[in-house]
Amino acid sequence: MRQTGEGFEVVDAKAKGGDKPSRINHGNIVYPKAGTTLNGGVRCQYAEQRTVISIGALRKLRFPVSGAQKNEVDDAARAVLAAIGLCAATLAAERGTSLRSRCHLWPVETRKWQLLDKPGQTPEEIEITGDEAAALLRAAVAAAKARGLGWMDQKLELKPAPELVELIRKSQEVAAAKDTSEGE
Fold first, then answer.
1. Shortest CA distance to 178 belongs to which of 25, 30, 26?
2. What angle do CA 82, 87, 93 make, to 5 degrees?
3. Distance CA 73, CA 60 (A)
């Protein structure tokens, strides 16, 4: 995909006459040289990250067990999904956030969640640590299992395709070469 003034467009590298990763937006952003008009990226001093877990959207989901739907099973499954979102966002924030390589976001205050319970009321603010979020997820999973929902306990290990590993290795070599040549 490539960002355009009106949104995003899909770019097929083969259709553009080549198979360069940069043609499918997998590469470094080229910054404009002095005196050029090339739009090479965005620079900012402040960015605000918002994470939303929509309880309304979760309410639409159903989780039948053996073909039978039960509200308590649906609620337990929804609690697991909400806890996964909360846990993922909290742990990611604790580890540090980056937009891309060498572009880190630094928080200016503690991450807070807001519970939007009733329209017109001030949202309740909640602070939660990664450990607390992980404990909440474990409790939600235990409750879901007790209701008959399945859960994979063993670790799922995902491995990138060899082509992607090679592409990333080459990208890092190019970046390292540029860093050393700029320092001379």
1. 30
2. 130
3. 13
**DSSP secondary structure letters along 29-91:** PPPPPTT---------S---------HHHHHT----BTTB--HHHHHHHHHHHHHHHHHHHHH
Those residues with Cβ within 8 angstroms of residue 126's Cβ, 6 or more apart along the chain or in another chain? 112, 113, 114, 115
36-86 per-position pLDDT tens digit: 555 555 667 777 888 999 999 999 999 999 999 999 999 999 999 999 999
Bridge partner residues of 8 (DSSP): 3
Q: In the chain, count H helices and then E strands.
A: 4, 6
The Cα 127–Cα 132 span in angstroms is: 10
Neighbours of 148 (CB within 10 A): 14
pTM: 0.64
Instruction: Measure the N-to-C terminal CA separation of the chain; round to a whole number of Å.
Output: 35
User: Which tokens hold the place of 132?
Assistant: 């607390």
- The H or E element containing residue 2 is strand 2-4
